[in-house]
Amino acid sequence: MELYILRHAIAEPKDATNAREDSQRELTPEGKRKMRRMAKGMKALNLAFDLVLSSPFLRARQTAEIVVETFKFKPGVELLPALAAGEDARDLISQLNKKQAARKSLLLVGHEPDLSRLIGLLLAGDPTLSIVLKKGGLCKLSAVALKFDRCATLEWLLTPRQLERLR
User: Fold this and answer.
1) Which residues contact 72 (CB under 8 A, 6 or more apart)?
2) What angle is formed at CA 161 by the lines to CA 45 and CA 74, rounded to 5 degrees?
3) DSSP sequence for 4-52
4) Could you tell me the CA-to-CA distances from 20 to 16, 26, 63, 108 in Å, in that order?
5) Is residue 135 part of a domain?
6) How many domains does the chain have?
7) In this structure, is residue 59 part of a structural domain?
8) Which residues, in sequence order, are CB contacts of 56 under 8 Å at separation 6+?
9) Is residue 23 in some structural domain?
10) Rounded Cα–Cα distance for residues 110 and 126 (Å)
11) For residue 8, which of 59, 78, 81, 100 is within the disulfide window of CB 3.0 to 4.6 Å?
12) What is the span of the domain harbouring residue 98?
C-alpha cells in the first residue's frame, strides 16, 4: 500500500483576534494559491490515489479539495473524523485499515503535530521521532499493512517548495 500524507496549506492564524473556532479556520488566499501550485507538482509526479481522506477541519478539507480538483479525482474527498487535530492514532490506523481493504493508494490530509507523530510511529514505532512536515508538505510511505508500530518504509518527504518546483 502507498500512503501519502499531506499537511494542510497555510491557514488563518489561530489567535485571540480570530473569532472562528479552530475547526473553521480557512486557508488564506496565499495558502490556496500555493496549494494549487503544489497540487500541480503532485500531478507532475504522476501520483494516483484510490481514496482521498481529509480531516473535517475546514483548512484540511479545502487543501484536499484543491488536490481533488487538480487531479479531477472522482468520487472526491471523504471526511474522516479520526484525521481531525488531536485525535487518537490507534483509532486512525484502525479506520485506515478498514478503508484500505481493496485500495492500493491513500492520500491523507490533516494537521500537525498529529501527522508527524503518525509518520514516526509507522516508520520507527516511535511517535516522538523528529519529523518536520511543513504546511503543504507531502510524505510517501509504503507498507504491507498498517499497525500501531513500525510497519512502513519512507519513500520520500517533499517540502512545499520542492512540490511547487515540479509543476
Assistant:
1) none
2) 40
3) EEEE---B---STT--S-GGGPPBPHHHHHHHHHHHHHHHHTT---SEE
4) 10, 9, 18, 24
5) yes
6) 1
7) yes
8) 23, 79, 80, 81, 83, 84
9) no
10) 19
11) 59
12) 2-14+31-73+80-166
pLDDT, residue 72, reads: 94
Question: Which residues fall within 8 angstroms of residue 146, CB to CB, at 6 or more apart?
Answer: 1, 3, 93, 96, 97, 100, 122, 152
pLDDT at 19: 60
Q: What is the pLDDT of residue 9?
A: 98
State the CATH number of the domain containing residue 105: 3.40.50.1240
- pLDDT tens across the length of the chain (167 residues): 999 999 999 999 887 556 678 899 999 999 999 999 999 999 999 999 999 999 999 999 999 999 999 999 988 999 999 999 999 999 999 999 888 777 889 999 999 999 999 999 999 999 999 999 999 999 999 999 899 999 999 999 999 999 999 98
